[in-house]
Amino acid sequence: MSLYSFIIKKLNEQNKSVNWLNREAGISSATIYRMRNKKDYTMNLATAIKIADALNFSMDEFRNTDGTTR
């Protein structure tokens, strides 16, 4: 599962939107859509923490989203 798919799954589980995540995590919508459009997208740690905090999940859940450790 890609980072984008993982984040969208978490958003759907909580009935939240990408716009909500942008506001709650303080990240731009461009960041989310770069994940969708770039297969080799690498998220920086600060952004990952903001997303995990906003969606209330452990950073460990980011691990192995596509079979590799991020």
Throw out a few tags for this protein:
single chain; 70 residues; mainly alpha; globular; HTH cro/C1-type domain-containing protein; Lambda_DNA-bd_dom_sf
First-residue to last-residue Cα separation: 12 Å
Beta-strand content estimate? under 5%
Number-wise, the strands total 0
Number of domains: 1
Main sheet properties: none
Describe this protein's structure.
This protein is mainly alpha-helical and 70 residues long. The protein has one domain. 56% of the residues lie in helices and 0% in strands. The chain has 4 helices and no strands. The chain has helices spanning 3-13, 18-25, 29-37, 45-55. The two termini are 12 Å apart. The model has no long low-confidence stretch (mean pLDDT 86).
Gist?
This protein is mostly helical and 70 residues long. It is 56% helix and 0% strand.
Chart the SSEs and their pairings.
Layout (H helix, E strand, L loop, with lengths): L2 H11 L4 H8 L3 H9 L7 H11 L15
